[in-house]
Every structure is written in structure tokens, then in C-alpha cells.
Amino acid sequence: MTKLALSSVDLPVFFEERHAALAARLTPEALAPLAGASDAADVARRMGEPLGLYAHLVPEALGGAPAGAGHAADRAAIDVRSLVLVREALGQVSPLADAIFAVQGLGSYPVVLAGSDAQRRAILPDVLSGRRIGAFALTEPEAGSDVASLRTEARREGDGWVLDGEKVLISNVPLAHHLVVFARTGSAAPQHGGDAGGRGAGRAAITAFLVDSGAPGVSAEPLPMSVPHPIGRLRFEGCRVPDSARLGEVGGGFKLAMQTLDAFRISVGAAANGMAARALREAIAHVTRRRQFGAPLSEQQMVRAYLAEMATELDAARLLVARAAHKRDTAPEDAGGAAARVSTEAAMAKMFATEAAQRIIDRAVQLHGGMGVIEGTEVERLYREIRPLRIYEGTTEIQKLIIAKGILERAAAERPADEPPPGRAP
Ligand code: COS
């Protein structure tokens, strides 16, 4: 099996030859048209043509990249290990491109998973070429981490639906042609906290819709961010859509959002690894060049200790990301034919990699001394670029809740029925 050199280690256990071939194509030279580019629309287009990166978001049957052996035969046929490689490469070259790519995925994967054949044919070929950009409209002013409490409403009217509500912090908004909108369709009131039954009813009342961003009743407003990143607010006022705009089952929206996030949270970890790898490279270049006290900084033990910690944390993060992606791609489907749940592993990868990248980049800034905080230096830019990754697609704190829930459920499932209560001798 071909070895895939991701850093100082090879990870042949998790990757296959086709991944090595993809990684070999994702060179800084190949991605050079994205480096330093600040026009989001242009960056979004280039990733379609000529770079062909969106092929990894679209099933092979609709022109996308082959998902490889071992995948569910059709609908969920997106290879998360390929996403991971693309995002680590983009993270090193252009965090702006990486963010647009990720949201193109969030805005199309629900169509891959739950779309009708007509919806898939109407959307996915243009997603592939980059003629069409998508967005994932989940977050609201009063519903961020607590998805079940969202308030945007879709009211049944005649043979369609009427959407009213507000979404905020929606990436790709100024560019997006279509929006995957999560709205409340059931009679259950939005649930904040409360008992499991109440929250369950709140979740069961959420449905996804595929809405044209130019549809009557939709308005968008950009929000300025601390880094170059297309993001904004959406308002739905009497926005009428046909029933054919519904994505999946009525009431299936919460699960669809979570399934989408499971796949893409893994790749957030990969993007963080890309940014951290870039910072480590910059730090090594700096400490081997810069001389103080008569020798290169790299001769100092404290500097070496920093480098050792940075490299080890980066490789640990890469291993967690690779493990989650491999499991997502290869674990047997559930009884309903859906991709295996990897919520715990995905949350571990996302949490650890983004937190580690923040620490690695912070140390790279420290090693650069005063130049590390001068606008325009690479590490200063990375220091700003990494920050949103610990928040978006589920904060670090939410990942901890998911991980704890996952391991407790696993422990309960493995406990024999006749085991004495914890703390008591058998
Ligand atoms: N795949 C399939 N089903 C899933 C799922 C997944 N990945 N995750 C959850 N579900 C289903 C389960 O069926 C679960 O039912 P059970 O009660 O049978 O276990 C149900 O959904 C509820 O799951 P959970 O109990 O975990 O829901 P909560 O409302 O308590 O909390 C969190 C869910 C907090 C984890 C969720 O709201 C979340 O991820 N929040 C962060 C949102 C986010 O990432 N926002 C960023 C937007 S994109 S930038």
C-alpha cells in the first residue's frame, strides 16, 4: 500500500492509494491561484473551474469523484478522507478558500443525503462546476448551539409552504445561490432546555427546505468579520416555496443537520491542521534564520521545547482526524442504509485539532517575537484566521457534550444487565 506522508508520519492505516494520489495533486503550486486572493466570488469559482475541488462534494453518479470501495453504494457516497485532504491543503494556502469550500459542502450534502432525484439533478452538477454556491441556514439570533430551539417557521399553505424568520452568521450568504434552510413545521413550540420529551418534540418539528437565495421574500445582509470571510444575515418574510422544495421528510430536519455536521466537523479539524502546519513551517523557517545571543534561535532549548510540543500536537490532531474520517468512510451502514454515526470521533477530532491549532499558532507568533503581531506577517494572519474554527460547526464546549454523551452511552450499552451498581463490590 502506498504510504501517505501527511507530516513527519505516514498514515497508511487510514488512507488508500487514491488518497495519496489526491494529496500529491494538492500541491501549493496547484493551489497557487487561491493563495492571497481576496475576492470571495472569484475564489469560489476557481475551486470549481479549473481546480475541480467540488468534485469531492458530489457523488460519482452525478459527475463527482469516486468515493472508493467500502462506501454506501449511492446516496451518501462522499469520501470524508478526501474532504480532509482537500481542507488540510486549503487551510495551508487560503483559509478564505477553505471556508467557502466547507460551506459549499454544508449547503450541498443535505441534498446528497435527503434530496429527491430531481433536486439532486437540479443542484449538484452546478455545485460541482462552481456555477452554483450553497449555504447552510441553521443558526438564528436565539438558536446557536441549541439547534432544537430554532424559531424560523414554515407554515403549510395550499400545496406549498410559507417561510418567516431570521437566520444569522450564515457563511457564503453574499455569494450563495441556494440555501438549505431549517425551519419549524410542526406545532411544537421551540424548546429551550426542559425535559427530554419536550426537547424531542421540538426537534421533531424541524424540516429542511431548499430555497433559492433570490426568491421573493428572502433578503440578505453581509456581516463584517475579523477575517476575510463571506458571512451574513438572512430574513424570510412571507417566502413562498412549493412542497417540492422540501428536503427530506417533514420533521427530518434536525437529524439531517446533525448527519451533515458529523461529516463536516471532521474536516474542520483538517482545516485547523492545515493552518497549524503552515504556522509550524513559518516558525521553523524563522527560528533557524534569526540569530540572537550569537546563535540561531533554534539552538535555544526553550525554542526547541516549543517546536517539539507544536509538532507533537499537530500529529496527534492529524491522527484523530484521520481516525474519524476513516471510520466515517468504512464503518458498516445502519439498518436504514445511512452512514454509520461517528459523532463522538468527529467531535474529538474537531475539538482537539482546532484547540491544538490555536495553541500551535500562538506559539508560532511567540517565536516570531514582535514581528508576530505586525499586520501582514503570515503568523499574524493565521492567528486571526484560526479563531472562528473553535466556534463554527459547534463550539468546543458543544463537542465536549457530544463526546461525553457518546462515551456514557457506549459504557451503558456495554454494561452487563446483571452488573452490580457502580461503587458496590460484586
Ligand atoms: N446522526 C443521526 N442522528 C442524530 C445525530 C447524528 N449525528 N445527532 C443527533 N441525532 C438524533 C438522535 O436520533 C437523537 O435521538 P436520541 O434521543 O434517540 O439519541 C436526537 O437527534 C437528539 O440528539 P441529542 O440528544 O444529541 O440532541 P440535543 O438537542 O440534546 O443536542 C446538540 C444536540 C447540542 C449536540 C446539537 O444541537 C448541536 O450539535 N449543536 C451545535 C449546533 C452547531 O453545530 N451549530 C453550528 C451551525 S453550522 S456553522
Describe this structure in words.
The chain has 426 residues and is α+β, with helices and mostly antiparallel strands. The chain has 3 domains: 7-129, Butyryl-Coa Dehydrogenase, subunit A, domain 1, CATH 1.10.540.10; 134-251, Beta Barrel (Butyryl-CoA Dehydrogenase, subunit A, domain 2); 258-412, Up-down Bundle (Butyryl-CoA Dehydrogenase, subunit A, domain 3), CATH 1.20.140.10. It is built from 12 helices and 10 strands. The strands form 3 sheets. The protein has a 4-stranded mixed sheet. Strands 2-3-7-6 form a 4-stranded antiparallel sheet, covered by helices on one side. Strands 9-10 form a two-stranded antiparallel sheet. A hairpin with a 2-residue loop joins strand 9 and strand 10. Helix 8 packs antiparallel against helix 9 (301-330), helix 8 runs parallel beside helix 10 and helix 10 packs antiparallel against helix 11. The structure holds coenzyme a persulfide. Coenzyme a persulfide binds next to helix 7, helix 8 and helix 12. Coenzyme a persulfide binds at residues 136, 138-139, 145, 147-148, 199, 203, 254-255, 258-259, 261-262, 341, 343, 392-394, 398, 401-402.
Describe the protein's topology.
Elements: H1 17-25, H2 40-48, H3 80-93, H4 95-106, H5 109-114, H6 117-129, E1 134-137, E2 153-157, E3 160-171, E4 178-184, H7 196-204, E5 206-212, E6 218-222, E7 231-242, E8 246-247, H8 253-289, E9 291-292, E10 295-296, H9 301-330, H10 343-367, H11 378-386, H12 396-414
Parallel strand pairs: 1-4
Antiparallel strand pairs: 2-3, 3-7, 4-5, 5-8, 6-7, 9-10
The chain binds coenzyme a persulfide.
Coenzyme a persulfide is lined by residues 136, 138-139, 145, 147-148, 199, 203, 254-255, 258-259, 261-262, 341, 343, 392-394, 398, 401-402.
